[in-house]
Structure formats: structure tokens, C-alpha cells
Specification:
Elements (H helix, E strand, L loop, with lengths): L2 E2 L5 H16 L10 H58 L26 H20 L10 H53 L5 H9 L5 E2 L8
Antiparallel strand pairs: 1-2
Helix pairs in contact: 1-2, 1-4, 2-3, 2-4, 3-4
Length: about 230
């Protein structure tokens, strides 16, 4: 005998509920395989779950779209910061800036190697350090670095920082809705299980193939084990 298995994706869950609801709505009351109470519950659960999944997809799409724009800000901030540090190192090598001043930027002991700016978090950390270091040095009478100037670096870093915070908000909102979807799956699965139980019980006395076909009309999904005949 084949065995049944509950849906394991959200689309499959929605499809299973829709099949059952649509079949019940087109069936005469006396021939319904599920109770009216369960039908009402299935409609409500289907409506809520569809709206949850749609809301999650919309928020996810917004996050992805915003991230593409954000990546441009990341690229610019990383480029300007790394370029600024390179010019700073060249100024030290030409003795235009004292090597001891590298401490102001958190670059002491870096052996003239660029800081790791791979992640957004590293970019945030080093951006703050580099900008603060240049501000302190110039406030003490040091000659400002140009090409790029710290003002230009600040602009690019500020745009990146704003974008980073916006992305965090998008991610938080998307995760919150995803958790709502995940929590509601248990309710959806229970309703599908109850529908399938009632349908199978209603058709229990029919011949095997006729029974399976009747059950399938309400969305019950059957699987055959390896080597098992489908006849």
C-alpha cells in the first residue's frame, strides 16, 4: 500500500489546502468528505498563511533590491578608505607624516599593510578609526591628506553607514516575518493532517483504487515505496 506524506514546502502546503477547499466547495453538502467546521478552519488558515507568505516574499524582495544598491555604497566606501590609507602610508614613507602618527589611525604595527575591509563590520570599524585619526592629526596642526580628502572619505563612509543600518532594518523585518511563517506552519500542517484523516476515514469502505482516487481529489498525496506496484 502507498503511504502519504505531508507537504514539506510552503507552496505545497498552500496547494494542498487549496485543493481541499476547492473540492469541498464544489461538492454537495451530503457528499462532503470533511466536516463544515474543518472546512471553515481550512479556509481561514489558508487565507492567513497565503498573506503571511506573500508578506514575507515582498519584504525579502525589497531587501534583495535594497542590497544591490547597498553594495555600490560598500564598494565606494572600501575604495576611498583603502586609497586614503595608501596615500597615508606614502606620506609616512616620504617623511611628510611622522610614523608615530599611525597610532592615531590604529595602524601602528601594521607594517604598511592595508587593513582588512572585507566585511561590512570591518569597514565600519576601520572607517571610524581612519576618519577619527585624520581629524585628530589635523587638529594638532598636521597637513591634511588630499586625493582623496578626508571630507570625500566621510561622504562615502556616511552613505555606506546609512545603507548598512537600512539593510539591518530590512533583515530584521524579513526575519521577523519569516519566523511568523515558520511558527504558523505547525497550524497549517495540523489542518492538512486533519483533512486527510477525515477524508480517508470517510472513504475507508471503498475499493482500494477508488478510495485512493477519492482521497486524492482532496489533495491527499500518496507515495509508493521502491519496488512497490502502482497498480
Amino acid at each position: 500500500m502507498p503511504y502519504r506524506r505531508l507537504p514539506n514546502t510552503d507552496n505545497a502546503r498552500i496547494k494542498a489546502l487549496k485543493i481541499a477547499v476547492e473540492k469541498a466547495e464544489e461538492t454537495d453538502f451530503q457528499e462532503l468528505s470533511i466536516s463544515l467546521n474543518l472546512l471553515t478552519e481550512a479556509k481561514n488558515v489558508l487565507d492567513h498563511f497565503e498573506r503571511l507568505c506573500l508578506r514575507y516574499q515582498q519584504m525579502y524582495d525589497t531587501q534583495v533590491k535594497a542590497n544591490k544598491y547597498f553594495l555600490g555604497k560598500v564598494k565606494n566606501a572600501r575604495m576611498y578608505l583603502s586609497h586614503f590609507v595608501q596615500v597615508l602610508y606614502l606620506s609616512v614613507m616620504r617623511a611628510e607624516i611622522k610614523e608615530a602618527h599611525l597610532t592615531l589611525y590604529g595602524l601602528e604595527g601594521a607594517n604598511m599593510i592595508l587593513p582588512d575591509l572585507t566585511s561590512s563590520e570591518q569597514l565600519l570599524e576601520w572607517g571610524e578609526k581612519i576618519i577619527e585619526g585624520e581629524n585628530v592629526r589635523t587638529s594638532q596642526g598636521g597637513v591634511p591628506i588630499y586625493n582623496p580628502s578626508i571630507a570625500k572619505v566621510k561622504v562615502m563612509f556616511s552613505l555606506f553607514k546609512d545603507g548598512y543600518q537600512t539593510q539591518k532594518l530590512h533583515q530584521k523585518a524579513t526575519t521577523r516575518v519569516l519566523n511568523e511563517v515558520a511558527d504558523y506552519r505547525e497550524i497549517v500542517d495540523k489542518v492538512i493532517f486533519d483533512i486527510w484523516e477525515e477524508v480517508e476515514k470517510y472513504n475507508i469502505n471503498l475499493p482500494v483504487e477508488q478510495r485512493l482516487n477519492k482521497n486524492r481529489q482532496y489533495g491527499v498525496v500518496y507515495y509508493y515505496r521502491k519496488g512497490e506496484s502502482v497498480e
